[in-house]
C-alpha cells in the first residue's frame, strides 16, 4: 500500500481482497462517518490513518 495521505478505493480493494465496487462502498461509508465529524472528504478516497484505524484498529501515536 502507498504512503500518501489518502488511500484510494482501488488500494482498499487490493489490501482487503475485495471487489472494487465493495471497496467503493467501504470508502463511502468511512467518508460519511468522517463527514459527520466535520471533516472534509474526497469521493473515492479516504484518510489513510482513518482507514487503518477502522480496519486494523491501529491508532496514530501522538
Describe the structure.
This protein is mainly alpha-helical. It has three helices and two strands, in the order βααβα. The chain has helices spanning 9-16, 20-36, 48-56; strands at residues 6-8, 45-47. It has a two-stranded antiparallel ribbon with strand order 1-2. Helix 1 packs across helix 2. It is globular, with a radius of gyration of 11 Å. It starts with 5 loop residues before the first strand and ends in a 6-residue tail after the last helix. The model has no long low-confidence stretch (mean pLDDT 90).
List the helices and strands and how they pair.
Layout: E1 6-8, H1 9-16, H2 20-36, E2 45-47, H3 48-56
Antiparallel strand pairs: 1-2
Helix pairs in contact: 1-2
Unreliable sequence segments: none
Estimate the strand proportion: 5-15%
Tally of DSSP helical segments: 3
Kindly provide the radius of gyration, computed on alpha-carbon positions and rounded to a whole number of angstroms. Answer: 11 Å
In round numbers, the mean pLDDT is 90
Largest sheet, described in full? 2 strands, antiparallel
How far is the first residue's CA from the last residue's CA?
A: 22 Å
Give helix and strand order, one letter per element, not per position: EHHEH
- Helical residues, percent: 40-55%
Structural class: mainly alpha
Give the CA-based shape: globular
DSSP strand tally? 2
Seen as an oligomer or otherwise, the chain set is single chain
| Strands ordered across the widest β-sheet | 1-2
Amino acid at each position: 500500500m502507498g504512503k500518501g495521505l489518502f488511500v484510494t478505493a482501488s488500494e482498499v480493494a487490493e489490501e482487503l481482497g475485495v471487489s472494487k465496487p465493495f471497496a467503493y462502498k467501504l470508502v463511502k461509508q468511512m467518508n460519511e462517518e468522517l463527514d459527520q465529524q466535520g471533516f472534509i472528504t474526497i469521493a473515492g478516497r479516504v484518510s489513510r490513518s482513518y482507514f487503518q484505524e477502522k480496519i486494523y484498529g491501529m491508532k496514530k501515536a501522538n
